[in-house]
Amino acid sequence: MKRTLLLLIALSFLACIMPRIEAGSLYTYEGSIGTQISEDENYGKPFDTIPIEHWTEHKLIFLPSQKLSKAPVYQDFIGGTGKDGHPTYEECVGRIGTIIEIIREYSSTHVGYTVTVEMDDNRHIYTGLADIISGTLRGVALLDDLENARKLWLGKLLWLRDGTMFVYSAETKKHDIVSMPRYSPVRVVNIVVGWFSTSPVRFILQTLDGQEGFLDLTLSGTNIGWDLRHIVYQRSFEHFFLEENPYEKYNWDPEIWAAIEAWQLLIGMTKEQVVMSWGTPTQINTTLTEAVKQEQWIYNDKLDEVYLCFENGILISIKS
Known about the structure:
The protein is α+β, with helices and mostly antiparallel strands.
């Protein structure tokens, strides 16, 4: 009897310290895995994309607009004095508020995010309604990208990859293009907000001979829906600018530079030279053997595809 009692006590102890084994446990696991990254670690870099769920306490600015249509500029917001409760352009343009609450809703009237914004100047409340799929709000931008861009590039000399920038007339509401040689130097004389949530940071630029123009960029991809993610690279800083003088950085032959400036390719170019001429490819396919690394770069401009073949980093063929 005593032995049986001791055995029961021992089995009870083992049951407490050993993991519980159930049918199917080979294929299931309910414990923790790894160490969770805090929100600050996830979104602590200057141009990290910030999902709408993490906008609380961030500053938001109502963007200006060309006002080319009669649709409300801030149509994703209510709490204003305009039609259907939307804010009018005049009451909100350029104003800044703090996001104080974000609620994910599943109701009969709204499926998505309700974003509460308290204006910094008069504490008035506006409510933004973002759909569940895109998680974006039109006509506004977080201030993070603008403030970080001003810290990094305001007053700096940059080199313009495409050699083009825009000018705009407020009187005629028309744009024009200023063209110059590729990789010309321009100085960033101001950084302000642009017209669109998809490219909300405007770099106002000046050439060395005093011509001014602008480019609108997206720096983090914040407040851009998944259906427009391709814009993130097309309007990125890296797509438009270099931060170093490429003619001093790269000691390439004049023949190579002439081809790059003319958007041309030459057999024998390196991958870096090809990127300087044509930009980043749409797709890269890689094949490895013992002696050779082959890469196929595909450029797709929607009208045609061009295939470049590299062998050990050197361009050996161009096919379309």
